[in-house]
Amino acid sequence: MEDYYKILGVSRDASKEDIKKAYRKLAHKHHPDKGGDEATFKKISEAYHVLSDDGKRAQYDRFGKAGPGMGGGAGANQGASGFEGFSGEGFDFDFGDIFEEFFGFRERGSRRKEKGEDIKVRISTDILNILKDEKKVIDVMKLVVCAECNGRGDLSTSGGKKCDTCDGRGRVKKEARSFLGAFSQIVACRDCNGEGVIPEKRCSACQGEGRVKKSEKVGITIPAGIDSGQTLKVEGKGNAGRKGSPPGDLYVEVFVENKTSFERKGEDLYCTVPVNYTQLALGDKIDIKLLSGKSISLKIPAGTNPGKGFRISGKGLPRISGHGQGDLYVRVNVEVPKKLTKEQRELLKKLKEKGV
C-alpha cells in the first residue's frame, strides 16, 4: 500500500503548512501541462487531498487507505476523474491552489479594488539636454476620475442598487470540468464588474465607468546621461482606478537624438579632429571643442601617426548614476589641403626632395 506521507516526502507529524509546501513543489514538478507524468501528479493530488483535511488525515492515520471514506480496497469507486476512491462530482481538492498555480484562475473577492492600468509613452530629447537633469512637462492622454459623478459612475445619492446577477456579492460561480474532474471557479460578476452594485442613475458623462478620457499635463525629470531606450517610471500617473481604486503608473521611454559630430557609446564620446601633417610631425597643441561648447587643449606629441587616439578623462557624458562622467576619445586625422599656394607647393617639393 502506498504511503501518502512518502508520496509527498513529509514526516507523519508534518504540519499542514509543510504538507501544502511539499504538495506545491511536487505539483509544479509533475504537472502534465509542464511535461510531468499524469499518473504521478494524480497520486500527489490524492495524497494532498487526504492529508490536508484534518478529518480525512485522522482516519488515514488510524485505518490507512482502506479506512472509512478513503475509498480503498477492491470495491473502491473509480470516478470519472480517474482518482482512486473519488467520483468526478465529489472532488473537493483545494482548487484555489491547483488552478491558480497552473491555469491562472484566481478567486476574486467581492468589491476587490484593482489599480488602474499602466500607461507607456515615448518622448524625445536632444543629447545637448542630457548634460544635466532636464525638467519637462508632457501631455498624456489617460483615464481620469469623472468630475460629474466624482468617480462613482452614479449620479444618485443612494450609492447604487444591488446587482441581481450576483445578489450583491460581486462574484458568481462558474462550473467547469478538466481532466482532474469537476470544479467551481469563482469569478467577478460581469454585470457589476465585481462591485456588487450597479448605478441607479448612470452618469452620462462616463457611462457609469467613473472615468473619462482626458489629456493631462505631467511633469517629469529626465536624468542627466540617460540613454536612448531607457524608461522612467512615474508612480500614480497612469489611468485612474475604478471607483476609488488607486491609479496605475506612467512609463516614459526616452529617445535621445544626436545631431552632433560626436559619437556616443554609453557615457563615452568619440570624435575625429583634422590636423596638418606638420602638427603630427613636429608636435603641437590644439583646441578641442567639447559637447558643452567649451574648449580644452590637447597636446599632440611630435611624431604622432595619423589615426592616433587620445583619451581625455571625465569629458564625456554624465553617468546616469550621478557619479562622475564618462571619457572623451579624440582621434587625429591628417587633413590634406585641396589647394596650395605657390610658396606652399615649393616648400613641399623641397621636403619631398629631402625624403620627408
Question: Can you offer a commentary on this structure?
Answer:
- This protein is an alpha+beta fold and 356 residues long.
- The chain has seven helices and 15 strands.
- The strands form six sheets. The protein has a four-stranded mixed beta sheet with strand order 10-11-15-14. It has a three-stranded mixed beta sheet with strand order 1-9-8, with no helix packed on it.
- Helix 2 (16-30) packs antiparallel against helix 3.
- The model is unreliable at 71-111 (pLDDT under 50).
Query: What ranges have pLDDT less than 50 throughout 5 or more consecutive residues?
Result: 71-111
Order of helices and strands: HHHHHEEEEEEEEEEEHEEEEH
What's the N-to-C terminus distance?
99 Å
Strand element count = 15
Tell me the structural class. Answer: alpha+beta
Output the radius of gyration: 37 Å
Taken from the alpha-carbon principal axes, the silhouette is elongated
Q: Bin the helical content.
A: 10-25%
Number of helices: 7
- Strand proportion: 25-35%
Largest sheet geometry? 4 strands, mixed
Give a quick set of tags describing it.
20% helix, 356 residues, 3-stranded mixed beta sheet
Quick description:
With 356 residues, the chain is of the alpha+beta class. The chain is built from seven helices and 15 strands.
Please give the structural blueprint:
Elements: H1 4-8, H2 16-30, H3 38-51, H4 54-63, H5 95-102, E1 119-126, E2 134-145, E3 161-162, E4 171-178, E5 181-188, E6 197-198, E7 211-222, E8 231-234, E9 250-257, E10 263-265, E11 268-275, H6 277-282, E12 284-289, E13 295-300, E14 309-312, E15 328-334, H7 342-353
Parallel strand pairs: 1-9, 11-15
Antiparallel strand pairs: 2-7, 3-6, 4-5, 8-9, 10-11, 12-13, 14-15
Helix pairs in contact: 2-3
